[in-house]
């Protein structure tokens, strides 16, 4: 039976410490007792953003002052086919005053999530485990010892996601470096993915793999890792990454880079156009540092990825 598509707006309210808000559905509702992100149905004549602002005022008594586009996903429930428009709610006025849920809970990154949870929110909860900054290694350029040194410093400062991309190193040296990097990242509680070399990623027990755009387009199945991402440059590549069910993508270059100074960057407006409505987080890449984080997220990016920028150098 074909079910009518229902648009729903959902808000990920974020505190300064990274915690997000969940509400427990009331006893007289469908999926009573399940935990969800606040929000509700988009009414005729409303945009999803307008609907969310209205719902949050009705449900929580707050006035949204800063909303960011994030993800859009579809889910087929027994009672409805829903298209969920997720936004990050970065700022609001007023005190939270729950009016419709049985309970509210702030969930800090890494903490257990209350159960049971609405099935559609599984990928969203996983996406919220993904750190906002990815550091991409450049041991080939600066030397393995120096890269490990700056990696340690960045991890101490809160870096939580690292991509090992060292195709130019010989196989033995690349594996030694990857193992050393993984040891440091694991000790700090972070995630490490290996670019292209899936066998190396499996051998060292990495958290996942990262596909080049070429390998992405040649793939018909998702590699069997907990975390899988890909580098993208076009909407077609982003849509293929989504079709494979990847956990994230990188898109760039957003700005001119030291490596390709003559190549024009996408700019933030074009970045937002290319990533609009995707079901997985997208990191902005190219000429960026951590100072670009707010602008990147306002454009719909999950966060930023950088080669030089994370290690204290202007990114390539």
TrEMBL record:
Primary enzyme class? hydrolase
What domain of life does the UniProt record list for this protein's source? Answer: Bacteria
Every copy of the Nudix hydrolase domain together lies at 4-132
Q: Which InterPro entries match?
A: Aldolase_TIM, MutT-like, MutY_C, Nudix_hydrolase, NUDIX_hydrolase-like_dom_sf, NUDIX_hydrolase_CS, NUDIX_hydrolase_dom, ThiamineP_synth_sf
PROSITE patterns attached here? NUDIX, NUDIX_BOX
From the UniProt record, list the reaction(s) this protein catalyses: 8-oxo-GTP + H2O = 8-oxo-GMP + diphosphate + H(+); 8-oxo-dGTP + H2O = 8-oxo-dGMP + diphosphate + H(+)
Give TM regions: none
* Its EC number(s): 3.6.1.55
Cofactor(s), names only, from the UniProt record = Mg(2+)
Query: Is Transcription one of the keywords UniProt gives this record?
Result: no
Keywords, in A-Z order: DNA damage, DNA repair, DNA replication, Hydrolase, Magnesium, Metal-binding, Mutator protein
Instruction: Give the molecular function GO annotations.
Output: hydrolase activity
Which family does this protein fall into?
Answer: Belongs to the Nudix hydrolase family.
Q: What is the protein's name according to its record?
A: 8-oxo-dGTP diphosphatase
